[in-house]
Amino acid sequence: MRLMLLSTSGCHLCEQAEIIINACVPDGIETVDIAEQEQWQEQYAVRIPVLYDSESGRELGWPFNLADVEAFIGRVACM
After folding, report:
1. Domain 3-73 sits in which CATH superfamily?
2. N or C: which end of the chain has fewer CB within 10 A?
3. How far apart are CA 32 and CA 66, in angstroms?
4. What pTM was estimated for this model as a whole?
């Protein structure tokens, strides 16, 4: 599993998503600014933030909460 947070600068929802994700993944995950990559911008411009597993192609779109992230990454009781 290789997790990425698809976001962009100045996105308050992306900041909220990062806080939730960091509760489950203390080492953090790669954050991709979709504005810097045309392929991401076209696909996700109106959907960010999105938690994306680049190995499987699975996505968890906003809105999500801690339980949603736990289920997505297959962990229990993150915090």
Report:
1. Glutaredoxin (3.40.30.10)
2. C
3. 20
4. 0.88
